[in-house]
Amino acid sequence: MENFDNCSDAVLLRRALAGEEDAFLRMYERLKGGIFRYAFYMTNSRMVAEEVVQEVFIQLLNDGGGYREERGEVGAFAFGIARNFVRRIERRERPYESIPSDESLGNLRGLTSEPETLAGQMMRNEVAARVQAAIASLPDHYRQAVVLCDLCELSYEEAAQRLGCAVGTVRSRVHRAHALLTQKLKPLQSREPDIEATGTEGCLI
Amino acid sequence: MNCEELRLYLEEHSRDKGLGFETDVITEHTTACADCARFTEDQRELARALQMVRESAGVAPKALDAAVLRNYRQHVSERPSPWMPAQRRWLRPALGWAWAATAAVFLVGVVWVLSARKPATVNTPPANVQPAETPSVARFTAPIPSKPAITETKRRPTKASRLATASFEDTSRPLPVRAARSLPDGFRSLMYCDALSCGEGMDMIRVQLPSIVMPGQGSGFVQTSGSVTADVIVGPDGVARGIRFEEIEF
Q1: Partner-chain contact B52 A124, CB within 8 Å
Q2: Are residues B157 and B237 in the same domain?
C-alpha cells in the first residue's frame, strides 16, 4: 500500500476519484471519525451517524469532481455535506422526536457516584445521554457551536470555517451555549462521578 | 485577577485545559469570591459533562468501514469507461463552437438581408385601370437623404412621406391622366393616386430637403443654403402622393 501520509486530502480525493482504492481508504480514515462524531452528537444516534457517514462518502464520490481546493479543505467540504444530511434527517425525524424537558433533566438529582462498577458505567452513559439531550435542546446555532468546539474539539477558527461565520461569532455562541447548558444541567451537577481528562482528538481534521 | 478577568480566562481556557481549573491564581481568587467560586464550579461541572459526552461517541464500527468500501468499489465499477469522459471533454467545446458558428452565420445572413433591402426600389402599383398607359412609377434609387427639416407642418410626415421626398429619376414622363387629374396643379405624382385614394383628407406639408434630391434639375430651386423647399401632399393613409418644388424668385 502506498504511503499517503504526505498527501493532502485534496490529492487523496482526486486520486480516489481516479480509482485508487488506497487513496480512498486513506482519505476515509482521516475524515470518518470527525464526521461520525459530528453526526452522532447532532443526532444522538449511532445508527443515524453511520448512515450519515455512508451518505457523505457516496456524495463525495459523486460530486467530488466539483470540489475546488481554493474554496477550502476537503474536510470542510465533507462537513458541509454531513451538515446538510443531518439537517435533512432532523427535518425528517422531527415530527416524531420529543426533546426532553428541563423537568426530566431535573430527575437526575438522585444519581450517585460509582465510577468503576457496571452500574456506575450505566449511570455515566445515562448522564451522557442526558447531557446530549440538553445539548439537543439548544437552538441550532448554539448546538452547532458546542458540537464543533466542545465535542469535536475544533478550534474556534476551524469551527468558523466549517460554519462559514466569523471567529468572534463562534466564540460568543459557545459562551452563550455554555451558559444555557449550565442552567439546564445544574440539577445534576455535583452528583456526577469524577472522571479523568482524556487526550484531545481532532474531529474533522 | 478580578472577577471579570477570571471569567474571561475560564471561558477562553476551559476548553484547552479540560478540567485543569486549579491554578494558583484561580484558587486564590475563588477563596475570596463566592460568586466566582460558584462560576468556576459550574464551568468545571460543565466540562466534566461534555467530557462524558465526548467519551460516549466511541468509534465508527467496522461494519461501516466495510459498507463504505463496498460503496466505493461499486462506484468505481459503475463509472463510465475511460474513453467516454475524454470524448465528452472533446465533444462539449466542439458543440459550443458549432453553436457559436451557426449563430454567427445566422447573424451575418440577417445583416446581409437587411443591408440589401436598404437601397430598396420602391415600386408603386401601376395604374392598372388602363393597362396600356404608362404606369406612374417613381423609382427611388438615391440613398435616402437626411431627415428633412419641416418648416411648416400640418401633419407629421410619416416614413412613407419621407421616402417620397427622395429624388426620383423619372420626372419627364407624363403623369397618368387620372393621377394627374387628382392632384393639384404643379404637383408631381409620387405614386398611384386616383380620385378614390386621393379624394379626401389630403394634407399638405412644407419641407426643406437637401439639393441632392434634385440631381440635374434647374438651379432655380436650390437655395443659397443648399436646400430646396417643397410641398408634399400626404394622403389619409400617411403616404406621400405628390410633391411640388418651390422655385426661388431672384
Answers
A1: yes
A2: yes
